[in-house]
TrEMBL record:
<protein>
    <submittedName>
        <fullName>Sigma-54-dependent Fis family transcriptional regulator</fullName>
    </submittedName>
</protein>
<keyword id="KW-0547">Nucleotide-binding</keyword>
<dbReference type="InterPro" id="IPR027417">
    <property type="entry name" value="P-loop_NTPase"/>
</dbReference>
<keyword id="KW-0805">Transcription regulation</keyword>
<dbReference type="InterPro" id="IPR002078">
    <property type="entry name" value="Sigma_54_int"/>
</dbReference>
<keyword id="KW-0804">Transcription</keyword>
<feature type="domain" description="Sigma-54 factor interaction">
    <location>
        <begin position="345"/>
        <end position="574"/>
    </location>
</feature>
<dbReference type="InterPro" id="IPR002197">
    <property type="entry name" value="HTH_Fis"/>
</dbReference>
<dbReference type="InterPro" id="IPR025943">
    <property type="entry name" value="Sigma_54_int_dom_ATP-bd_2"/>
</dbReference>
<dbReference type="Pfam" id="PF01590">
    <property type="entry name" value="GAF"/>
</dbReference>
<dbReference type="InterPro" id="IPR025662">
    <property type="entry name" value="Sigma_54_int_dom_ATP-bd_1"/>
</dbReference>
<dbReference type="InterPro" id="IPR029016">
    <property type="entry name" value="GAF-like_dom_sf"/>
</dbReference>
<keyword id="KW-0067">ATP-binding</keyword>
<dbReference type="Pfam" id="PF02954">
    <property type="entry name" value="HTH_8"/>
</dbReference>
<dbReference type="InterPro" id="IPR025944">
    <property type="entry name" value="Sigma_54_int_dom_CS"/>
</dbReference>
<dbReference type="InterPro" id="IPR009057">
    <property type="entry name" value="Homeodomain-like_sf"/>
</dbReference>
<dbReference type="InterPro" id="IPR058031">
    <property type="entry name" value="AAA_lid_NorR"/>
</dbReference>
Amino acid sequence: MEGRAVVREAHEARVRSARERFFVRGDDAVDGVASLVLRSWSRCAEGGIDFRAAVDRDPAGRAMLAELRERSGDLLGQAGGIMEHVFEQIRASGSMVILADAEGVILHSLGDPDFVGRAQRVALQPGATWGEAVRGTNAIGTALVEQTPIEVCGGEHFLDRNGFLTCSASPVFDPHGRLAGVLDISGDYRNYQPHTLALVRLSVQLLEKRLFEHRFARDLVLAFHTRPEYVGSLQEGLIAVSCDGQLLGMNGAARECLGGAVGESPGRTLDNLFRLSFGTLLDRAGRDPASLLAVELRNGQQVYMRLKTSVPMRVEAAPARAADAPAARPRSAAKPCQGVTLDDLATGDAQLQLALDRGARILGKDIPLLIQGESGVGKELFARAFHHSGPRRDGPFVALNCAAIPENLIESELFGYSGGAFTGARREGAVGKIQQAHGGTLFLDEIGDMPLGMQARLLRVLQERSVTPVGGSAQVAVDISLVCATHRTLRELVREGSFREDLYYRVNGLTVTLPALRERSDIRRIVMSLLACEAGGEGEREVGISEEVMSFFERYPWPGNVRQLQNVIRVAVALLDEDEALILPRHLPEDLFGTDEFDGAKGVADDTRREASWPAAGGHGVPATASLDEIELQAISQAMRDTGGNVSAAARRLGISRNTLYRKLGRMS
Ligand SMILES: Nc1ncnc2c1ncn2[C@@H]1O[C@H](COP(=O)(O)OP(=O)(O)OP(=O)(O)O)[C@@H](O)[C@H]1O
């Protein structure tokens, strides 16, 4: 501790003497401060900044700040969690974590209350500009000018009044190599920590990686490094390419490794960078996605590479062959991943196709979409696909499940709140979901569960297209596309008085109803698509499914719909031994269908296709001569029809356990 004080004093003395020579004697070739700092002092002096200046420009007004935040929406969206994490590391050290935009305007900050008060006296707060031309040498502004990480301690700040600060900042570049902003940690100079700049640099690397992954979530991403152990680390180079090999973007590490000669100008392809064709790369990566490929750069240097993609690299049952590069190309339809589109969801069912076609017709039109369907049918996936298919695809998709959060939190979640709006509120306030969705899509799941009071406020937002955060007075304009979902019938809720009629007409510009899985005719294709996803995580193992299991899947009533089927497949894949590649009845979860029962059912598996709706077993009551089995069949069919295929409810009605009912259903099919 003492040693650190000695070092600080020596630094202070050096800087004091350098200031004296620079500011008082006008000597511009002083030693004692880093050349970056001296360069900045010279710029500031030439720009006419007075180092004794005491007056701060006013921070940007609220509306202005909201607009700037909106412009840096991606940056803020990705930085929020990282800043909170960094703040946790430095909590109680009398510091602040600050995010500023590319002009040096502070967009967001998190700080220790003790220090925040002092920082505000020098306008180190959201809305204030810390560009070098305004506030002289400081870490935020100078990091932006020099485009490099920098530490500015005590008297190295150009303005006398900022001499109590120590600040470490690093510029943040977007996935196209453009300056997006700057991350900074500022604190009291007396608490200077030599590791702070390293923490800032690491955080910025993580932030840039997140920005990159977010921007190219739907594309192919190549991760590489000259050293194999660095692939997968924060230092890895990342290149995004389209499905036909065009360069879309690269991160700083990739740029550095590839040298200045390469850019992602239109028409540039991977072949311009590496000594291997895009097709060969896909083929090799498709054959062995888990391992690293040794690839040569055009300059002959060797790098190690892995293809990272959210879309699977292989066709479900067909082995990828070396000579057949197109077979290894990613199939966008296979995985219900982030970038899924309406076209990807078309797997052949007529009722679903109707919903997809209707949804596609209103893309880009200002018409709210209401998605109806049982739980687990894929309403949220449909909403995401709708978002990714339309002109807002590059904007945010923000989801809120109205049934999953406590009623008293819905308001602040949706509308946000201003600083100190209520007990427990964060000092700096929070941006609500509606504002977060600006420029993109707001998905309100289980809208039928929204409390009436909230419905009135939501209606106002939809009518006025602006939102007022809780505790705030300023309105913030919002431009959102609204998609709502419900497993209940909203019209009935209106009739019961629990859903506002005016809001009902606002949210259901177009209603689409997604079919329950038991009603769908494309179960085979869904199974194969889910299998490709689930087995994809298991390395490059080719996993198939036995006909016995498949035909059972086709007849099973799936009360939990696609979600249940997905879980069953996930469990089955997990239960496969290492040398097994075929899902058999014994891999199915026991509660779904025990092996004995399955054997009982398979006699009818091949020739009896279960009808979409439950048969009325004759439809005229139980015949006088009915056997016990027929009576049972009649009772079960009736219960299943009455409960819309809900096994739990039907079991309750019949007075038997769910497992017993599943067993009996299996025998019946
Ligand atoms: N066509 C599909 N292909 C692959 N997976 C699907 C498909 N449809 C749905 N899923 C998967 O099934 C699960 C349930 O889907 P989702 O959450 O969209 O349903 P939901 O109707 O919104 O459910 P809830 O009403 O309970 O919120 C998700 O994991 C989703 O990825």
